[in-house]
Amino acid sequence: MTARANLALVALMAGIGWIAGMLFAPGLGWSSIGLGLGLAAGWVMARAGVRPVIGPAITIGGIVGAWIGRAIVRALCLPGSCPRIEIAGAALAGIGSLVGIGLVVALVVRSFEEFGEGRRPTGS
């Protein structure tokens, strides 16, 4: 990847992290944590050579899974009665969805690459 693509990936992941922080708890604290985590994830993805379309999509899936896990726990508890369980539910659901989506994406990308190799003309 080019330096411009790496910079775009880091900036995109920083934006995703900032938005995720604002979704979980509006305010400067959580949005700053999300921004920092997004920057770190973008830097790791850029260094590992992750495709710019795949990394953010998987990350967004993990964030949505965490948001759903938190909402489920919030619906089961009285308001404000179990914040630690909300965090644990969000973490477990987020990690589970991140792993699940990552596996599906890896298998799909691999199958597309294998399909593309089968269609290429062989040298004469």
Protein model, in words:
The protein has 124 residues and is mainly α. The protein has two domains: 1-50; 53-124. Helices cover 83% and strands 0% of the residues. The protein starts with a helix and ends in a 5-residue tail after the last helix.
In short:
By secondary structure, the protein is mainly alpha-helical.
The helix count comes to 4
Number of domains: 2
Mean pLDDT: 86
CA-CA gap between termini: 31 Å
Overall morphology: flat
Q: Helical residue percent?
A: over 70%
> What structural class do you assign from the helix and strand content?
mainly alpha
- Number-wise, the strands total 0
Q: Using only CA atoms, what is the Rg? A: 18 Å
Low-confidence stretches: none
Biggest sheet architecture: none
Q: Classify the beta-strand content into a percent band.
A: under 5%
Return the string of H and E elements: HHHH
Write the topology of this structure.
Layout: H1 3-24, H2 28-48, H3 54-76, H4 83-119
Task: Pick out its properties.
about 120 residues; 2 domains; mainly alpha; about 85% helix
